[in-house]
């Protein structure tokens, strides 16, 4: 809808106005938004009500209305499961690795691209680094296997050619998280630059000119002009990212997992898939999903508050 | 605002409303019911759904499909499930409660299905079966007995031969002949054969580049079966079911696998290879064998011949453990089950059974697999030779033949285009295998605790085994882990419930 006020005014608190005249005035805009609103209501909000099966012993035949209520039984079973801590550790570990190494990568890359003066070069590089985003995880798993497996992997073949012992990479628990992060960076770093480059494009060139006249070098300009211009976008993306900290990307982990690394690879998503879908324990897996969502909501709200307190841009 | 401006606005409003309305209609249409089918004198419409291994799915324009409709006076509405997604789809379908009139479930011990059968969602077919001569024929009797739930026939089993299927070694006979080796009949001999594949250069290129056995953890399940002299996850001891995973024989199996891996007889990527990658490896012509069902003697064997024209890919008959118990894979004489939900009226249940009766009879059965005589095949020397039309109408493995399997061993040991010598040898092998009865006491037993806890336990055990085999963990840790499991109350509960289910099954038969 239309942006009603800029920030400083908003703090003054407008007197309360009746809703109806506003709705009437903007009615066409609302009608235009209706399909989108319907989409969210039908596919996002109505399904939320089905979360109640997390508190039931849900049977498809009896339906939600007829299934017996079991209270927090599924939650108790989940939290008292000795694997709970392993799942939590792996999920958070993989997410934090992503946050620390993957999140800054597109920012750095965007800054670097911004400094490229040769336009053709810049565009070519941009286009090339977008490509991996469009590959599916199955393909990326295949590529990883071809590069790093012990019998066929290019990397190990090189080692053999140099008369060195082959290295076990794919079934090594110590390297697993790093491997996942590296894959994510390889796949998504280029795509991630788009939004940052857009933020950079909004910078008034006069600021750079003025800085040059003041004698600022390349890094000074980057630090004092480009980065602050990106700050809002970075904050918003960071907050959103915190909300998904319990999601680790099911496909990637599931494909990369093997018997030798399960201890560091099993995460909530793969566990829910195995228990919920394969074993048909819908109530149990719903309870786990609900737990994940609640943690996500807490993190987003918390991060948003913190951002506000430090006077940064926030989500709402 | 001018009057014309208002008009334009009204038009806009109307249009955007229409768009919104259209969108909502589309949305609701997706959730609409599809169960409405009219009864009448004409052909009976039947909705069914089943697994289909074909690469191309047929529809109601296919001549075989039409022929089935004509001969059974039905109007078929078949939904094909692709094997890669069938497990999820079937579970979701059961969960939604929106069941087709003929519901296919891949495993009778699917927990959702078991609950629903007990809740009375499906027709008890026991009283009807005897009225259908083909369904109640004596060659199918074992299939009906084995698929009973609480002594009643709720399901129409989808026939699949007991012998010939299952992952069991198929070895490169041409390599064995070249090195003068006998077909192995026990684990030590198997080890020696594989070792010779590694060291004696059977492909004759002067390099030790052979992979003796294209293995991954899943393909080696038979090793535990051989050492334990039993099939499945349970062993009968003193009239009780005990889990195979905690048996000492399973420890020996792990050690055998470890020895084999350490000797370099498995691929280095043993732990991470997917099944398809082991198949690629054997097809490449440089591997000495892998574990597959007998029809792969040609399904996979023909692919090896494209690379190595002299390749001969031969299933072995059995393997024996130190106690002299012979092991060969066998199963219940069906794979997958069909059920009819109670919402289907009784008259229609009889029509549906009539359809299956036709399909399980000789005529309907051969129609599903071979098509129409003269059009899709000709008979020469008693064997059906497919015509080019056969391939055009997608006969062979898949489609109608997956709805109703061929009631013959050919289902598990034959393949399209299989040469006579390979086929005849497969027949001999399967006849030898049939003499071996490896017990499978846990077969088709269901228990609540089993479903809830066993998959987790079993996964941990198999991860542990793999780690020990590839040297990421020690056998001492394995022993500690198994000792813990032996005292684990959950596993004990699972075992007790399984024993109870076993006795119940025995007494109801």
UniProtKB/TrEMBL annotation, chain A:
Record's subcellular location: Cell membrane; Membrane
CDD domains assigned to the protein according to its UniProt record, in alphabetical order: TM_PBP2
Classification via Pfam families: BPD_transp_1 (PF00528)
Keyword Ribosomal protein: no
Membrane topology: Multi-pass membrane protein
Transmembrane stretches, start-end: 28-46, 92-116, 128-148, 185-204, 225-246, 282-303
Main localization, broad class: membrane
Every ABC transmembrane type-1 domain range: 88-303
InterPro entries in UniProt: MetI-like, MetI-like_sf
UniProt keyword NADP, yes or no: no
Sorted UniProt keywords: Membrane, Transmembrane, Transmembrane helix, Transport
Family (UniProt): Belongs to the binding-protein-dependent transport system permease family.
Protein's UniProt name: Protein LplB
Annotated source species: Paenibacillus cookii
Lineage of source species: Bacteria, Bacillati, Bacillota, Bacilli, Bacillales
TrEMBL record, chain B:
Keyword entries, A-Z: Cell membrane, Lipoprotein, Membrane, Palmitate, Signal
Entry keyword Lipoprotein: yes
Family matches, as InterPro entries: Bact_solute-bd_prot1, SBP
Annotated signal sequence range: 1-31
PANTHER family, A to Z: ARABINOSE-BINDING PROTEIN-RELATED, POLYGALACTURONAN_RHAMNOGALACTURONAN-BINDING PROTEIN YTCQ
Protein name, entry field: ABC transporter peptide-binding protein YtcQ
